[in-house]
Specification:
nine-stranded antiparallel sheet, two-stranded antiparallel sheet
Length: 410
């Protein structure tokens, strides 16, 4: 398999976990960390859940963490750490958070709704809808399809704006309020040659590389098809019908509405935390700019899997997965990717579905069992973008996700 290219000062592993990936987000428990089967351990009590969350905070080195679990019709919450450093104030329940790449399944759902309506085809090329946009340096929009964009099999290089601005604390402070247009993001990606040729139809193990520009292009195609922005379509087709009151596209508003935890990042070359809460997220666009809440994420995934958002044919397309690239197999063994959805094995058997997200300083992880009976959403703040701390944090969160989905809460 052709290895994907990562043009960044970060290591390959760090790039897979943050920054360039904008949130791989799906998790699986390493064998050494897997809990016993549900029958042996039994469901967790509320006190057990609180203890698990506190342990996760300590092991991961987070500043704060909030968890919401749904088991059947019952919901449980737990939290640990601080909402803002030095205040002792707890992380708010139900607070606003940056969805990062949790934006992707929202965008993919809209695309698949348009497919179901006959207004778009997964086999349509980018060139058909956005002529001349994907071109130069070997990039060819006539070979890249909508399916390629949604499944990260297009080969389009995952340009990130920090490739040009730098990714240290000083660069963040200088550029935190930059207004970036989607056309700028695609132009940046076009400066690089493709990482590999677009996947052949039906290839069960195509080349794969997480590409944020692919979802920016998907957002641009939504606008071409409907005459309205991807954010407007997400609102009218998903947010409004499901009553997701905490989910919205902020545009150029750098602030979070209502209660929220602050996010903190330890940039390369720094020995302290940088508060990254307030920033313009236009650089993420349709790849990761939504704001949401823990409960809204679970409601969205539940509605998606119980058939309220997509017909069976389009849902089957969304769940058709391929293995991810080699770099992503290091922190996420067993990860497979569909059309805006990730699938991972659970230690107790079966799979969990969802999509996580990362920004500088914040992580979102979610999961839904295949039958939809249990769901979990985790929001954490405080990130050190180095291989060892990232792997340690991922392992701790993986253990928590797997334990909750396998054992449940009583």
């Amino acid at each position: 398999m052709t290895k994907p290219k990562v043009k960044s000062s970060r290591s390959r592993l760090a790039a897979a976990l943050v920054g360039a990936a904008l949130g791989a987000g799906a998790l699986v428990v390493p064998a050494s960390a897997a809990p016993s089967s549900p029958g042996e351990a039994g469901p967790l009590s509320r006190a057990d859940l609180r203890a698990e969350v506190e342990r996760t905070l300590e092991q991961a080195g987070y500043v704060g963490i909030s968890v919401e679990v749904r088991d059947g019709r019952h919901r449980f919450r737990a939290r640990a750490g601080e909402a803002k450093l030095g205040t002792g104030r707890p992380v708010p329940y139900g607070g606003a958070l940056r969805a990062a790449s949790v934006t992707k399944p929202f965008v993919a759902t809209v695309v698949l709704q348009l497919v179901a309506e006959g207004r778009l085809s997964l086999d349509d090329t980018v060139e058909r809808w956005l002529p001349g946009v994907v071109a130069g340096n070997g990039n060819d929009g006539s070979r890249v399809t909508v399916r390629h964009l949604l499944q990260h099999t297009s080969g389009i290089h995952s340009y990130h704006y920090t490739d040009d601005t730098g990714d240290d604390a000083a660069a963040f402070q200088r550029h935190r309020f930059d207004r970036i247009e989607p056309e700028q993001l695609i132009a940046g990606a076009m400066r690089s040659s493709p990482d590999f040729p677009p996947a052949a139809p039906g290839d069960p193990e195509p080349n794969w590389n997480y590409s944020n520009p692919g979802y920016v292009l998907a957002g641009m195609i939504i606008e071409k098809v409907t005459g309205r922005s991807w954010a407007t379509e997400v609102h009218h087709r998903i947010v409004e019908p499901l009553g997701l009151r905490g989910t919205y596209a902020p545009g150029h508003d750098p602030f979070l509405r209502g209660p929220h935890a602050h996010t903190y990042h330890r940039f390369p070359g720094s020995d302290g935390w940088t508060d990254t809460t307030v920033r313009d997220m236009s650089w993420a666009d349709a790849a990761g700019s939504l704001i949401t809440t823990e409960r809204d994420q679970d409601r969205f995934l539940s509605a998606l899997f119980d058939g309220r958002l997509l017909p069976p044919r389009e849902m089957a397309e969304m769940r058709h997965v391929v293995p991810v690239g080699e770099d992503f197999q290091v922190p996420f063994p067993g990860l497979h990717y569909g059309l805006g959805l990730m699938r991972q094995p659970l230690s107790c058997g079966g799979y969990r579905w969802g999509h996580g997200g990362d920004t500088d300083g914040g992580s979102v992880r979610n999961g839904l069992t295949e039958d939809g009976s249990r769901g979990v959403v985790i929001s954490a703040t405080g990130k050190i973008p180095e291989d060892e701390p990232l792997l340690r944090a991922e392992a701790a969160v993986q253990r928590l996700v797997d334990t909750v989905l396998c054992e449940g809460i009583r």
